[in-house]
Write a structure and sequence with these properties.
Layout (H helix, E strand, L loop, with lengths): L7 H14 L7 E6 L22 H11 L3 E4 L6 H6 L7 H11 L5 H22 L3 E6 L9 E6 L1 H11 L18 H13 L3 E3 L3 H6 L7 E6 L2 H8 L26 H17 L1
Length: 280
């Protein structure tokens, strides 16, 4: 299942397959993290600053999955500065990080931000900086110009359940999902970067940035996974239950009802029965 044994065309085909099999409302997304901005951006991928614009990473996801655009976001392109810092594209001290977040008023006070920073900065951010990534290429998976590092799928709850079931079909440790939620950086950090760095799938509940900037719909959830996982998902999709209640489309119980449901229904049934009996 290693991505190294798969070609770009394999990933493109997988994107088409999961899009069609799940009847997704938007395209699955390919993410490729790059170190060399000058030499790793393929033809057909544009940077927002080339058009005199800036976009956030989560906006790039929306442009890719809804408008089939291929974008590269770097610190220069990204107006959402906290996500540039979180990706290690720009080094900040923990003090600078805390000050920026205190000004945002995301949490109660400076003490709360320091507790958050000690957890995030010390445990994640310093390690990310050492990897020296400087940008991310975002595109629809079925048109990806590169072999992706991570894949994201936005969908509704039932379709997400099918994907979760597929990952859990053999209950292998490799595919186990263990997600935590903070309400910030849900798609860019947790849905894209974390699956790449940790090689673990993550559930996405779109966060503050997603909802403020990226046009996320109220019903949308998502999942981010290491790129190779897409083939495992497709291999096991719809296998859970061996054709019982979770076939696609979702099979839900339909209650057995009769005219006693409401007084008006019951009255009309009596009237109809009398008319039918006269006709006999």
């Amino acid at each position: 299942m290693s991505s190294k044994s798969k070609t770009k065309e394999d990933f493109q085909k997988a994107g088409e397959e999961i899009f069609e099999k799940l009847h997704l409302n938007s395209f699955p997304i390919s993410l490729k993290y790059i170190r060399d901005i000058e030499n790793e951006i393929p033809p057909g991928v544009r940077r927002p600053i080339d058009d005199g614009e800036k976009k956030s990473i989560c906006q790039a996801f929306t442009y890719a999955r809804r408008f089939r655009q291929k974008l590269c976001i770097t610190a220069e392109d990204n107006f959402c500065t906290p996500s540039s810092v979180a990706h290690g594209w720009v080094p900040l001290s923990m003090e600078e990080f805390v000050e920026s977040q205190v000004r945002q008023k995301w949490t109660k006070d400076e003490k709360a931000e320091r507790r958050r920073a000690e957890h995030i900065y010390a445990g994640t951010f310093k390690n990310v900086i050492e990897l020296a990534y400087r940008g991310v290429i975002v595109s629809p998976l079925m048109e990806t110009p590169v072999i992706p590092d991570a894949i994201m799928v936005y969908c509704d709850g039932p379709k997400l359940t099918y994907i979760i079931n597929a990952l859990n079909y053999e209950h292998k440790r490799k595919y186990r999902i263990q997600s935590t939620f903070e309400g910030f950086g849900e798609s860019c950090g947790k849905g894209g970067l974390m699956p790449f760095l940790t090689q673990k799938a993550q559930i996405i509940i779109p966060g503050t940035g997603d909802r403020s900037f990226a046009g996320i719909q109220d019903h949308e959830l998502g999942i981010g996974m290491p790129a190779s996982f897409i083939f495992y998902v497709l291999e096991n999709l719809f296998q859970t239950g061996s054709g019982q209640g979770l076939k696609f489309p979702l099979r839900q119980l339909i209650p057995k009802l009769d005219e006693n449901l409401t007084p008006g229904f019951r009255y009309m049934r009596e009237v109809i029965d009398k008319k039918l009996s006269k006709n006999d």
